[in-house]
Amino acid sequence: MSTWANLGLQDSASPLMEQLIFFHDHALLILVMITVLVGYLMFMLFFNNYINRFLLHGQLIAMIWTILPAIIQLIIALPPLRPLYSLDEINEPSVTLKSIGHQWSWSYEYSDFHNVEFDSYMVPTNELENDGFRLLDVDNRIVLPMNSQIRILVTAADVIHSWTIPALGVKVDGTPGRLNQTNFFMNRPGLFYGQCSEICGANHSFMPIVIESVPVNYFIKWISKNVNS
Fold first, then answer.
1. pLDDT over 90 at 214, yes or no
2. Which CATH architecture has domain 15-88?
3. CATH says 95-228 is which class?
4. What order do you get walking across the sheet with 142-145 strand by strand?
């Protein structure tokens, strides 16, 4: 999760988020180089006294400043194509989770298991434990296995919501009457926090998401306990 003075992206917890961070750094480096070059040229224009009375056209420089931006655009556009298509690639998921947005909470259903469903509400500030995070902790966390392909189905019961976990690179809109899906793969254990990123009403900022990534054997114990209960 983000902390104070964190100006960059969160540490990734999935391979796709790693690729998105790599692309961010790649594009930002090119933008910095362009900004420095253009800034230097503009700065020098104010202080040089070069005059050429016979300069009427410059075909060579015109070709350069036409072709060079096209090449730079290709350098920026080609690397993200693979992760972009990988975001929608769903290949034999191990677990399917259905998320339903409400005003203002989330409901979750584990579709692969019988009768495993629950609501998830934000923990009020006056009920937080000492190690809890204000506006981010919930009463019922999502528990999912690490190193497993996870499919999530997202919809909404009232207005448009958006199920977003920055550390996993996941952002899926939940629209009433529609079912959107995506996938993610968590490569380490931990707690991953997110929020609804669609302005969905007065308490939009009070419907956080918490995923607890655990080893597969812990997940099996957790799901067995909830199925039997």
1. yes
2. Orthogonal Bundle (1.10)
3. mainly beta
4. 142-145, 208-214, 190-196, 161-165, 170-174
